[in-house]
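Morning!

This is the sequence you dropped in the shared folder:
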Amino acid sequence: MNSVFFKNLGIIDFKEAWDLQEEVLGSIVRCKREKTPTNSHLIFCQHPHVYTLGKSGKKEHLLLNDEELKKRGADFYKINRGGDITYHGPGQLVVYPVLDLDNFFADIHRYLRCLEEVVIRVLLDYGLVGRRLDGATGVWLGDGVLLRKICAMGVRASRWVTMHGLAFNANVDLDYFKNIIPCGISNGGVTSLSKELGEDVDFLKLESLFEFYFKEVFECELI
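The structure's back. Tokens below.
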């Protein structure tokens, strides 16, 4: 069974967490080049208000200028993950797996589906049925005009080592999503666990459930 080093960083600046991921990814890639054993890592955190734009994203999907960003107390970064624009903020579980997929399965498509599966299993524990959309990544609730996204995903991989990951809306302030066209999708709403359940969720319980199902889906142990 694979071992994955787990760390919960709490609330941390987005750039600081990004730099940490790059550092960890770089160390894993160096080990691979030297043909020495590699370690995988799983990072939990929350971020202060920030909008991030992926490589395939369009800046016009951010509906705020620099002055308006400042008024909202939010930062903005164009980053090296896949996907379009998304928002991170307090009350959102952000998960960054930095995994050497050569130790699991060298298949990015399968990796994304496994991350979605973890979220879907967590949602079931809250009595909610998560679903995938063809041609998209992430997890939604409902369908048709009631379709609403609860988890956004965007990843990068180098030599089969992953970084970035997913953002699972728990007790997050959904008003911040009104300032973007989330993930470039203008015809779908955004939701959170607290909105769906009508009350704030216990964040520690959510983190614990995510740990449990991550271990189950990826058949690993967390250290």
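Headline: The chain has one domain: 2-222.

More detail when I'm at my desk.
O.
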